[in-house]
Design goal:
The complex is a heterotrimer of chains A (about 300), B (about 250) and C (about 290). Chain A is mostly helical. Chain A has one domain: Orthogonal Bundle (ABC transporter involved in vitamin B12 uptake, BtuC), CATH 1.10.3470. In chain A, about 70% of the residues lie in helices and about 0% in strands. Chain A is globular, with a radius of gyration of 19 Å. The N and C termini of chain A lie close together (about 10 Å). With about 290 residues, chain C is mostly helical. Chain C has helices at about 1-30, 40-55, 60-85, 90-115, 140-165, 165-175, 175-180, 185-215, 220-235, 240-260, 265-280, and strands at about 120, 130, 140, 215. A two-stranded antiparallel ribbon of chain C has the order 1-4. In chain C, strands 2-3 form a two-stranded antiparallel sheet. Classes of the chains: A mainly alpha (about 300), B alpha/beta (about 250), C mainly alpha (about 290). Chains in contact: A-B, A-C, B-C.
Chain lengths: ~300, ~250, ~290
């Protein structure tokens, strides 16, 4: 089998990063506040890349990703907190719950095109939030508290890297090309034998699964989750990351999630001004560079592609 | 042996009959033309055959099975592929990807296999790429395989669309004005190419064309539509002398 | 029965507000195919303009209503010129995200200047109410005002759209922008005008909500904005009578859910209706079906 140099290099880089941060955290060189933001960053990366799967690669406007995150967060947290079940099965069940809801919701609404789908997914996110507010078992509007802190650095890192790899593998396959063809031209794709419903629903549900995973990791780091955490604005946050990085670029989403998380952490104390700056930047990007930082391209280390060498 | 048989096909848009009581058959291996003035309903007929539109009534029997109202992707998987009048390539994907996508219904490896990069993934991906490049070679597009489809010149885009349709490995190929916008030399080359692939892949072809002389030259039989109705059918000689056909065309020009 | 009648009255007042906001959504969508997420914020600004007009200038309800409508009309045009016009030919998602950006901008500029705490809207209309045909249901003068003003504005809008030159131009541009341009219609001015009219209606809704609920906040536009969009979709987006009807229906349903069921589910109902209508008939109650041409 051929060796994929890009992959090997990126993975090595990732693990150096892992040990570096691990060391800095355990030596308490990184303060508690920045540590929290690093955790948040990795959760944001999962959310942004998985959302990109729907908005960027499949080309469907999805504005309710936080709803799936909430399903994963609440399902897993209810399992660990209310039922004393172990962490890893809870993450899995939380993700599967999001996946199943993704299929059930996606099947009817993904027939809608463009703006109608956008508004339907937005509505979905709001419905999830309001349902949680009305569910006393998970604390209603007050939120669910006393969630054990099970999310640790190795688990978070490994899961994030695994999800990025899985998304990449999905896109770079015949199934992924089917997904891209739907973005490009639905009618041409369908007459070329692509089952639109199957690929739309499957991609939407896979993205939901990962959002569920991110939600579970989130809940088990921050001790408490409230329905308000997963409101429309949260979905917008992830949308902005995906769009800023470039719809259709996994590396773009990673960069944008990183950049925006850092900026957001630095401006934490400025409240309204932070949001004003955020919105101005958002509009400016759309006006001057609507394709985002990376467009649909992926970052590659070109020195690794030797002339006449192996290509993926 | 009839590969396609259309009986009393009707499509109404609101009260307007875009196609009414349309009958047609194609024997295996034939090259049949579908002509008619602008707005005669030719493309609508294609859309009905390939499932893009659902017929209001009537039958479309393909390889012995009624496919009226069946979804386009299933019809494609049963062995029918088409091109579009106004070129519908996957513009922001590479030339190679355009062809590989058409091969998708023949791919056997699962989503699971692609997610976890199992052996079946690598084996089949290699095979897909080789086959796709073979198709590109036939259309002399293999040297442009990594270019984005939208960056190809117009004539090459038309050729790529045919290559993509062929990669689906159809029994019946529907070409919607393949020579539209081409100069006489390009048109001539294209016709030779169509003759060649027909031979090589044992294809049956249904072709919409606007250019009468061209259709007369290559088609074995011709159907003429006007205002959604079939007004004539037969060999080029019969069509050429049919008063209704002459009237339909002269009427349009007058 | 009395509860029912009372909820009908409450529903129609609430529905009037939704209808006024929905009209702006539907007009803008009809003409440039953009979900103007910032529309809910224009309604919020309208409420604040009304608030300041009444408290600082000491004027009455109707002058405040007019000032607010004019202010919002200008704001709507400015937003269109700065943020949306440059994006007219770019992708739908870019335009949509810009609209979300503008919406956030207005919300937090509001928080910055007006502070997040609710402001108490002055009691400018009588608190009185009247009994309906000897039942236990009442209609307050505020509700009556909301209802009457909404109907008048709706009639005025119908007049503008159907009997004036501007209205004809708006319909022409909505139908086919390029053809309208070729026929000598100034498309840019017509789009500006559409934003102005839609925003003025939202401004009116803002002032009336201030009077009705007597408290306003910078984030008050988010939920009504989304729900008004639902109302517009319910009636058939781009269709003016549709937006009006959709708003009224939504108001009535919400009032019924509050009156008979659990008011906590009130917000979910709107979105549930949205998803159902989108699945059953995405073009809305008044819409016609169209299929993409191949």
């Amino acid at each position: 089998m051929k060796i994929n140099r890009q992959l090997v290099f990126n993975l090595s880089l990732a693990f150096i990063l892992f040990f570096l941060i691990h060391f800095l955290m355990s030596a308490k060189i990184i303060s508690q506040y920045y540590q929290l933001n690093i955790y948040l960053l990795f959760i944001n990366i999962i959310m942004a890349t998985s959302l990109n799967l729907v908005n960027g690669f499949l080309g469907q406007l999805h504005l309710g990703h936080a709803g799936f995150m909430a399903i994963g967060a609440y399902t897993s947290a209810a399992m660990t907190t209310n039922m004393d079940l172990p962490f890893l099965p809870s993450i899995l069940v939380g993700s599967i719950a999001a996946f199943v809801v993704g299929v059930l919701v996606g099947y009817p609404i993904l027939r809608l095109g463009g703006d109608y789908l956008a508004i339907a997914t937005l509505g979905f996110g709001e419905i999830v939030r309001i349902m949680i507010v009305n569910t006393e078992y998970v604390g209603g509007a007050r939120g669910l508290s006393g969630i054990p802190r099970y999310t640790n650095w190795p688990i978070l890192f490994l899961i994030t890297v695994a999800i990025i790899l899985l998304i990449r593998n999905y896109i770079n396959s015949s199934h992924g090309r089917a997904v891209l063809s739907i973005r490009e031209d639905e009618i041409a794709a369908e007459t070329m034998g692509i089952n639109l419903t199957k690929y739309k629903v499957m991609t939407f549900a896979i993205a939901a699964f990962f959002a569920g995973t991110a939600g579970a990791l989130y809940a088990h780091y921050f001790f408490i989750i409230t329905p308000a955490t997963f409101n429309f604005l949260k979905s917008v946050d992830y949308l902005v990351m995906a769009v800023l990085g470039g719809l259709g670029s996994i590396t773009g989403s990673i960069f944008a999630a990183t950049g925006l998380t850092i900026i957001s952490a630095l401006l934490q104390d400025f409240g309204a001004v932070r949001m004003i700056a955020y919105s101005v930047v958002l509009v400016a990007i759309m006006l001057f560079r609507p394709s985002g930082l990376m467009g649909t391209k992926e970052m590659k280390f070109s020195f690794l592609d030797k002339k006449g060498g192996n290509k993926e | 042996m009839k590969i396609l048989e259309i009986n009393k096909l009707v499509k109404l848009f609101g009260g307007l009959a875009a196609v009414s009581k349309f009958d047609l058959y194609i024997n295996k291996g034939e090259l049949v033309g579908l002509i008619g003035p602008n707005g005669a309903g030719k493309t609508t007929a294609f859309n009905l055959i390939t499932g893009v539109y659902e017929p209001t009534s009537g039958e479309v029997i393909f390889a012995g099975e009624n496919i009226a109202g069946v979804k386009p992707f299933k019809i494609n998987q049963k062995g029918m592929a088409r091109t579009f009048q106004n070129i519908r390539l996957f513009k922001d994907l590479t030339v190679l990807d355009n062809v590989r996508i058409a091969y998708h219904s023949h791919v056997k490896y699962s989503v699971f296999s692609s997610l976890f990069r199992l052996k079946s993934f690598f084996v089949e991906e290699k095979e897909i790429e080789e086959k796709a490049i073979d198709f590109l070679k036939i259309f002399s597009l293999d040297h442009k395989k990594d270019e984005l489809a939208k960056n190809l010149p117009y004539g090459e885009q038309r050729r790529l669309e045919i290559a993509r349709a062929l990669a689906a490995q159809p029994k019946l190929l529907l070409l919607d004005e393949p020579a539209a916008g081409m100069n006489p030399q390009e048109t001539h080359d294209l016709m030779e190419l169509i003759a060649m692939i027909r031979e090589k892949f044992d294809l049956t072809i249904l072709l919409i064309e606007h250019d009468m002389s061209l259709v007369m030259g290559v088609c074995e039989r011709i159907y003429v539509l006007d205002h959604g109705m079939l007004i004539a059918n037969g060999t080029p000689d019969v069509i050429r002398n049919d008063p209704k056909v002459i009237e339909a065309y002269l009427g349009e020009e007058a | 029965m009395d509860i029912f009648l009372q909820q009908v009255i409450n529903g129609l007042s609430l529905g009037s507000i939704y209808a006024l906001i929905a009209l702006g959504y539907t007009m803008v969508y009809g003409i440039i195919k953009l979900i103007n997420f910032a529309h809910g914020e224009i309604y919020m600004i309208g409420a604040y303009i009304g608030f300041f007009a009444i408290t600082a200038l000491g004027i009455g309800f109707f002058p405040a209503l007019i000032i607010s409508m004019v202010g919002c009309a200008i704001l709507g045009m400015v937003i269109e010129k700065i943020a949306y016009k440059p994006l007219r030919n770019s992708s739908r998602i870019a335009a949509l995200i810009t609209a979300i950006g503008v919406s956030l901008f207005l919300q937090y500029t509001g928080v910055f200047f007006f502070k997040a705490e609710p402001k108490v809207f002055p009691k400018i209309l009588s608190d009185g109410r009247m009994n309906i045909f000897g039942t236990k249901a009442y209609i307050s003068y505020q509700q009556l005002t909301i209802f009457v003003v909404t109907i008048l504005l709706m009639l005025l809008l119908q007049y503008i759209v159907h009997f004036t030159k501007t209205g004809k131009a708006m319909r022409a541009v909505a139908y086919d922008k390029d053809a309208a341009t070729l026929m000598g219609i100034n498309t840019n001015n017509t789009i500006s005008m559409t934003f102005a009219i839609g925003s003025a209606l939202a401004g009116a809704a803002g002032v009336m909500v201030g009077v009705y609920y007597s408290a306003i906040t910078p984030l008050m536009g988010v939920m009504p904005g989304l729900k008004a969009f639902v109302a517009a979709v319910l009636g058939g987006i781009g269709i003016i009578p549709g937006a009006f009807t959709g708003g009224m229906i939504l108001g009535l349903i919400e009032a019924m859910v509050s009156g008979y069921g659990n008011s906590l589910y009130r917000d979910a109902v709107a979105f549930f209706i949205l998803i159902v209508i989108l699945i059953i008939k995405p073009t809305g109650l008044f819409g016609k079906n169209e299929k993409e041409k191949v």
